[in-house]
Design a protein that fits this description.
The chain is mainly alpha-helical. It contains four helices and no strands.
């Protein structure tokens, strides 16, 4: 596993997400800037996801294509399932869940592309 790729993927996930929400709008929030602790917490959350995916990519010996397919499968199995459940059971607005689902799809594809290419 390439730790430099992990660091680049974590930062990339954070940047992609920031740009995505600035364009798509953050339906679930109040539009204010996050507090420093929230930024650090988000970097930590991203690091956990990236490390898990990087380990899987390395152990499964996946290249770019396989890694991106893993990212897509992870999106369907986790964020999509969880967010659609929040719409069904917690009355989360479809638009809010779809906004978050789009963010997760982009992040997972970018992260797996980075760790798949840069092994």
């Amino acid at each position: 596993m390439n730790w430099l790729a992990v660091v680049v993927a974590v930062v990339s996930a954070f940047v992609v997400s920031s740009v995505y929400y600035s364009v798509a709008g953050h339906e679930a929030g109040d539009g204010t800037r996050p507090a420093p602790w929230q930024v650090l917490a988000e970097l930590g959350r991203s690091a956990l996801v990236v490390i898990m995916l990087a380990v899987l990519v390395a152990r499964m010996d996946l290249g770019f294509g396989g890694a991106v397919l893993l990212g897509l499968a992870a999106w369907v199995a986790f964020p999509f399932v969880l967010l659609s459940g929040s719409v069904m059971w917690d009355k989360v607005a479809v638009r809010v869940a779809a906004t978050h689902a789009g963010d997760w799809l982009l992040k997972l594809l970018v992260v797996t592309a980075i760790v798949g290419l840069w092994r």
